[in-house]
DNA sequence: CCTTTCGACAACTTGATGGTTGTCAAAACA
DNA sequence: TGTTTTGACAACCATCAAGTTGTCGAAAGG
């Protein structure tokens, strides 16, 4: 469907995937076996989550030696989601502020 | 399960629900029939989406006259999600910047 | 008073999600 | 060489998500 924003938010909605992102933030780059050691799920489940993050564009495969497959964060991948949230939050707040102002003025 | 952040992100992952939020931003407050007129889905589907937004804490029921049920945005509801995204994005960027710096320094 | 509208449920279909087990070939290692 | 890891698939299961149709009673409107 190519709802990019939706895919990013969906990817972030799973706590396991957020944990993976946080691990990536800590460790810079990681791999399936590595994450499998940190998480209480199977290798296959980890691989699936990484594929989801990949499809959402949050993560990409990094060149690695041998058969190893490493993953790293994709530059700028969070920007659209962050921008949408920031804009929406701003509009949200200003609307509520205006409402509040109207109430104040009324009494 | 009570994964608040997850529920918010999940709520935002659906384009129909984002459209509802944007309508709410434009119109201040809305109702099931109103949204049904704007969207290509049934009254019942609209009600379900509103319930989802309600459970995620993004929206709340506003007092209304008669049998009408109006919905409005909940103050501060986006803050945790926005904060998580902003923090993560910052860590993300600084990590990438550091990496880039290391590469520059190396050659 | 009769008809329409609205909210609240319930049942159902279809498809996606998160997880599992199992298999296999290639690479790494003892 | 033989054993263990790793990645890549596939099948499967249970649950949830998005949407539908249908029903019902209460409120609004003619």
Give the SSE layout.
Two copies of one chain form a homodimer.
Chain A lengths: L3 H9 L2 H13 L1 E3 H7 L4 H13 L3 E4 L7 E4 L5 H28 L1
Antiparallel strand pairs in A: 1-3, 2-3
Chain B binds a DNA duplex (30 and 30 nucleotides) through helix 4.
Describe this structure in words.
Two copies of one chain form a homodimer. By secondary structure, chain A is mainly α. Chain A is 65% helix and 10% strand. Chain A contains five helices and three strands. A three-stranded antiparallel beta sheet of chain A has the order 1-3-2. In chain A, a hairpin with a 7-residue loop joins strand 2 and strand 3 (70-73). Chain A is elongated, with a radius of gyration of 19 Å. The relative contact order of chain A is 0.14. The A-B interface holds A 3, 5-7, 9-10, 12-15, 18, 21-22, 25, 28, 73, 75, 77-79, 81-82, 84-86, 88-89, 91-92, 95-96, 99 and B 3, 5-7, 9-10, 12-15, 18, 21-22, 25, 28, 73, 75, 77-79, 81-82, 84-86, 88-89, 91-92, 95-96, 99. Chain B binds a DNA duplex (30 and 30 nucleotides) through helix 4.
Write a brief structural summary:
Two copies of one chain form a homodimer. The first copy, chain A, has helices spanning 4-12, 15-27, 32-38, 43-55, 79-106, and strands at 29-31, 59-62, 70-73.
């Amino acid at each position: 469907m190519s709802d990019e924003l939706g895919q990013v938010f969906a990817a972030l909605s799973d706590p396991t995937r957020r944990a993976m992102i946080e691990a990536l933030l800590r460790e810079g780059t990681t791999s399936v076996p590595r994450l499998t050691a940190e998480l209480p799920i199977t290798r296959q489940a980890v691989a699936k989550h990484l594929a989801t993050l990949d499809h959402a564009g949050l993560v990409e495969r990094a060149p690695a030696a041998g058969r190893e497959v490493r993953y790293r964060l994709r530059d700028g991948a969070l920007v659209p989601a962050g921008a949408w949230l920031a804009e929406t939050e701003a509009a949200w707040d200003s609307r509520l502020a205006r409402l509040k102002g109207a109430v104040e003025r009324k009494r």
